[in-house]
Amino acid sequence: MVDKRGISIRGQGPGTWANAFPDAATPPPTKVDIDHTDGEGIRIAAMGCSLSEFAVEGSASRRLASFDLFQPGVRVEGPDFDAILNPTVQARVTQRTKIERMRIAYHPGDGLLSVGDITESQFNDMDIHWNKGTGARYDTGSLWLSDAVGFTVTIASPAVVTTE
What we know:
5-stranded parallel β-sheet, mainly beta, 3% helix
């Protein structure tokens, strides 16, 4: 989990499918293999963080797992808080997140899951393939489940997402 502001993780070459079979001029993508089946592959839980130029792929056991909404390849969501029991706590947001030149593949859930406020965030040039959920899903963070269960409740709506 990336839970400190401003952390950047960058690979040695674009993680896009376009260079899955690189030549000498294009370095092979850095690849992170996710081998567990109990949650997201990578989670960004702080403001101003970035991921770029690598692939996040599920292992053989992750590929065989059944569809699971709570196992995306990359999850962008601040820490949970309880707005009902503690209304003075402000939502912890993941604004200004930047994810670019990535490949996200073979996960039991969505490729990219963003929950809550992502104002001024950028998601560019990503190849999201072979996941059991949607390619990218943007959620407000207000789930229909009981707040007492400990799921996220956010005050702000997610930002407008522009694709190019």
